[in-house]
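Example for tutorial group B:
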């Protein structure tokens, strides 16, 4: 039996970050379940994160971004691991989203209409994000802006309907036991392919 095709994307620019450890824990769990897993470490890619002309003029994609598009097409389940910085995703991850999820690849605007066609229908996603405040506070006081942006305005926009959020925090001043507990929880998410 062939396992689920899972793509894990780490949006933290530092390979020595806790986010990197979380992404590796998820991968370990998923591989142990029999899933086929591929990964992208955005911080290791070579690309210009600036969508210089918006959609007015095409900017050629670098080889790393072309490969990322192939992996996104291949995946059945896309796992994003990233820190919440200033209520959003890291700049390098935002640039990756801008440059990769282009019209014609992830969606297509309909002629003479405000509606669009979504090309990632049938895929699922998990957002695993770290923050320096309690997740409940982030959601209740601020409305979870990065969760909404990634879930509703990015993943749902391109057709990924089922998007689950795992928010981990506060990371700042956290004890090793707290971090280890979450590494184990994320590995279990990987084992369940969720």
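The residue assignment follows.
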């Amino acid at each position: 039996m062939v396992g689920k095709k899972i793509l894990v994307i780490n949006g933290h620019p530092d390979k020595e970050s806790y986010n990197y450890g979380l992404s590796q824990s998820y991968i370990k769990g998923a591989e142990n379940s029999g899933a086929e897993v591929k990964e992208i470490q955005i911080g290791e890619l070579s690309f210009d994160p600036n969508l210089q002309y918006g959609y007015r003029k095409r900017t050629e994609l670098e080889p790393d971004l072309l490969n990322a598009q192939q992996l996104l097409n291949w995946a059945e389940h896309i796992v994003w691991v990233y820190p919440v910085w200033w209520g959003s995703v890291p700049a390098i991850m935002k640039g990756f989203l801008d440059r990769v999820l282009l019209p014609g690849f992830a969606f297509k605007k309909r002629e003479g209409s405000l509606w669009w066609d979504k090309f990632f229908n049938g895929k699922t996603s998990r957002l695993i994000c770290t923050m320096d405040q309690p997740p409940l506070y982030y959601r209740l006081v601020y409305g979870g802006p990065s969760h909404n942006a990634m879930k509703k305005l990015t993943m749902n926009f391109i057709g990924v309907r089922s998007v689950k959020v795992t928010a981990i925090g506060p990371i700042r001043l956290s004890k090793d036991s707290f971090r280890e507990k979450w590494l184990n929880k994320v590995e279990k998410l990987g084992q369940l392919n969720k």
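The helical segments are 18-32, 63-74, 91-100, 135-142, 145-155, 176-191. Compare this with the pattern of hydrophobic and polar residues in the output above.
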